[in-house]
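call fold(seq) -> tokens
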Amino acid sequence: MSCIEVPSDLEHVLAAAWKAARDVPGFLLEDEARLLGMIAACVRCEGAIVEIGSFKGKSTVMLATVAKHYGLGRVVAIDPHNFNSAELQEHRKNPDSSSYEDFLRNLEKTGVSDYVEPHRAYSSDVASAWDRPIRFLWIDGDHSYRGAKADFDGFFPYVTAQGIVAFHDALHEFAGPLRVFVEDVLRSDRFGAAGFVRSIAWSQFRPADGELFRSQRDALAKTAARVLPYLNEEIELQGIQKILYKLNRARVPRGPVPSAKWVSLLNGQQAG
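ret:
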């Protein structure tokens, strides 16, 4: 039995959640934020919403506003708040710099403090003691391959059947998220429908019948894998390599998906 449903007031709730999250500093685009909100609202399987990488709370506010409205429990937000990843180094003014106070302030300002369970810790430390089911695993932490792989391996065993796994910045110049998504998700028959919205890569965990979605995943993997040779943690893309990266990335379908179409994908109408 499917645990996926579209609430009748979804569009109104997503608009309100984006209004709350829009001015919070961060790197989330509106289409991406709406996708996160849609996943949180529509996936009613057992388990928590887990966010790895919160920064100052943009995606946290989006998710928590939706969770607050629908009574989905608290969003688990995991981040050491010390700008430890390469993509946040420019925000680190000194060794003691932290985004934690800004994060808490933004939760308070938007009225969602009571709907967030913050963990000021490295995701690996939280994963080592984790024992709860997860309905939505949102990975937006360390974008190196080692970091993205560790986040996936640490929390994926707790994702409930029909739950969703999503990675941010999978179509940006980071080595980790896209490689993990292609190798561990798209090429696995444990997963069902999958796709991209802007730079978010997402898929549904379908351990019982993921093979029914193999052709859709294979087609997406073939296209996305063309980007992988240009993602190298040691070398910054320049010149012709950067042009080729952008050309191959442009072939990956990544436009916004209306909720009805998204649910039809999950329910297998376009599987083959």
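Strands lie at 48-52, 75-78, 116-119, 134-139, 159-167, 191-197, 200-205.
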